[in-house]
Amino acid sequence: MSDKILHTANLSVGYKDRTVLSSLNLNLNKGQLTCLLGPNGSGKSTLIRTLAGIQKPLLGMVTLQGKSLREVSPKTLAKQLSLVLTDRVTPGNLTVYGLVSLGRFPYTTWMGSLTGEDKDVIQWALEITGTMQFANRHIGELSDGEKQKVMIARALAQQTDLIILDEPTAHLDSPNRIEIFHLLRELVSSGHRAILISTHDIDTAIANADKLWLVANQSISQGAPEDLVLDGRLEKAFTKEGLSFNYSLGRFEKAINNNGLKVLIKGSSLSAYWTESALRRAGFQPVEHLPQVTIEVFDDGSTRKWILNNQLEITTIEELLTKLNTYENEME
Ligand SMILES: Nc1ncnc2c1ncn2[C@@H]1O[C@H](COP(=O)(O)OP(=O)(O)OP(=O)(O)O)[C@@H](O)[C@H]1O
């Protein structure tokens, strides 16, 4: 049995008089969480709609479980692929339980009655997504984060090996975003599912995805996040957005024309990491050579201190930044 759940061959996607992405030879594999990253308007939703069979390819083809998507009946498709579209309006008068049970539609009879097995699956979907506690509430009464988890529960109730989510973490706060990514990781860890999500959350995607699909030059580069970081493809894809990738902190930052004080940070503890983060935010330049100021960071797990230019002892990052500002002003 192949590990490939979905495959595209020379696929082009777009609209009648406009190709958005082309030459796409992509794979979604079992046991993998893939994140689709790209700037606004680069074609993520267009690709997702094409992979889900909602929109026709302009060229090439999509293969799902070894069969061309064109030949898969709607009922079979619903047993193989579930789709979560963030901005789709969900009827507020449905209860959470009612919405999640809609996920069982490919399996129920024409009368739509739920069997014991259907009910077990719904129960599992509610439990794993942590939405059981509000099963009887109406969708309209939920927060965005809760609603998003319910939409994922509905997709899970559909029991498909492929789940595609278009921006599932848009509108969510940081803890909820992390929780959703954590849930998606748990879902792929069972080994038989593949999950594709499109997101603007680059840092969380780098930390959690097994693979990235990176929109660049009207096509897509794919690879492990770390490979795309190290060979510079990730940074290149976002340079137009005015972002630069900070390789030591592993995250994107707004590219600034930085003429701040050059600072050498000595130390490799967690405190050194956060010192660098604070210094960059404040406009100082962490450097390896020819510093104007040297900071030694000490951290033995219980006490932290910073020694500025081998003399001045400082106990908080806030105080350190104040001292560096004073130092910089004196030098001008
Ligand atoms: N129905 C349509 N007809 C023609 N062009 C369209 C249509 N829908 C979207 N487009 C265009 O296709 C391009 C890709 O749009 P798409 O929505 O796929 O991008 P996206 O990467 O999902 O964007 P975002 O991150 O902003 O959601 C855009 O230039 C958009 O204007």
Automatic annotation (TrEMBL):
InterPro entries: AAA+_ATPase (IPR003593), ABC_transporter-like_ATP-bd (IPR003439), P-loop_NTPase (IPR027417), Siderophore_ABC-ATPase (IPR051535). GO terms for molecular function: ATP binding; ATP hydrolysis activity. It is found in: Cell membrane. GO terms for biological process: iron ion transport. Pfam families: ABC_tran. SUPFAM superfamilies: P-loop containing nucleoside triphosphate hydrolases. Residues 6-242 form the ABC transporter domain. It is a peripheral membrane protein. The keyword Kinase does not apply. Gene3D superfamilies: P-loop containing nucleotide triphosphate hydrolases. One of its GO terms (cellular component) is plasma membrane. Keywords: ATP-binding, Cell membrane, Ion transport, Iron, Iron transport, Membrane, Nucleotide-binding, Transport. Coiled coil: none annotated. This is ABC transporter domain-containing protein. It comes from Roseivirga spongicola. The lineage of its organism: Bacteria, Pseudomonadati, Bacteroidota, Cytophagia, Cytophagales.
